[in-house]
């Protein structure tokens, strides 16, 4: 039929990113699906003749795409619970903005929904608008419950040189070290070009209290990304042709690709070969 795509996508729970992509493919092929169903299953084709139902599918396609983008931004090796909490907090603020725009009949942030309403010159019924706003409200509440904002007093870890000391969770005596740190111009320049975890490791000797407190916040796993990466690596290494392989040494090397070996310590523990 000259379509951009030749088939639909199968949704599986294991591959959670497929949900949004599946809906998007259905929405992009809505005309082709309607023609196919009119020949095979006329009752199902009625859904694709219902403009309100198609508008709802367009909205769900858009919101799942945004959730996919959020999920992907939360993955990666160099991340921590503070950064992830900030990203989810920003997403919740966007949801509040989207609710206000939907109530004003502005669908610009939802590409599929906006395109469908403009192409077909339709105005969403109040019932559909109310359902969309209710869905967004529930989504925001669910995110706030699942990921509560507990980072208000810990922002100094992310922005140690520009934070407000009044928000720091420390007693008066402990706040002296952050003041000293904020006045340390050499560390300020290093902070701009250094990974957050590595920066706080560098402060161990001079600012032991800040070092200990910051690492307790940065060390916990922020997501299951590293575990999933290790599992994917394991399945690639230990195939059915290597089922008896002792995978531990190979797996350790594979998942430690971003860790530089400490050559001095390794060589110090081995006796050098003397001359004969």
Automatic annotation (TrEMBL):
InterPro entries according to UniProt: HATC_C_dom (IPR008906), RNaseH-like_sf (IPR012337)
Domain called HAT C-terminal dimerisation: residue spans: 189-246
Taxonomic superkingdom: Eukaryota
Molecular function GO terms recorded: protein dimerization activity
Residues forming coiled coils: none
Name listed for the protein in its UniProt record: HAT C-terminal dimerisation domain-containing protein
């Amino acid at each position: 039929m000259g379509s951009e795509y030749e088939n639909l996508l199968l949704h599986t729970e294991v591959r959670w990113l497929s949900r949004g992509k599946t809906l998007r493919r259905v929405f992009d092929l809505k005309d082709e699906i309607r023609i196919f169903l009119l020949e095979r299953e006329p009752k199902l084709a009625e859904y694709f003749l219902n403009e309100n139902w198609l508008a709802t599918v367009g909205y769900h396609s858009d919101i799942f795409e945004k959730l996919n983008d959020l999920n992907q931004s939360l993955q990666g090796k160099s991340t921590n619970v503070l950064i992830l909490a900030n990203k989810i907090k920003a997403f919740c603020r966007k949801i509040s903005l989207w609710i206000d725009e939907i109530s004003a009949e502005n669908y610009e942030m939802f590409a599929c929904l906006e395109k469908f309403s403009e192409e077909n010159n339709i105005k969403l019924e109040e019932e559909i608008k109310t359902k969309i706003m209710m869905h967004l409200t529930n989504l925001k509440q669910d995110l706030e419950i699942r990921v509560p904002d507990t980072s208000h007093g810990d922002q100094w870890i992310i922005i140690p040189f520009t934070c407000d000391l009044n928000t720091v969770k420390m007693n008066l005596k402990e706040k002296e070290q952050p003041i000293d740190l904020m006045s340390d111009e050499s560390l300020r320049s290093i902070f701009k070009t250094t990974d957050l975890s590595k920066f706080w490791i560098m402060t161990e000797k001079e600012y032991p209290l800040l070092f200990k407190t910051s690492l307790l916040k940065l060390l916990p796993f922020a997501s299951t990304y590293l575990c999933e990466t290790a599992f994917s690596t394991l399945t690639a290494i230990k195939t059915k042709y290597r089922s008896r392989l002792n995978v531990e040494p190979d797996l350790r090397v594979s998942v430690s690709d971003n860790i530089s070996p400490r050559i001095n310590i390794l060589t110090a523990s081995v006796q050098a070969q003397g001359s004969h």
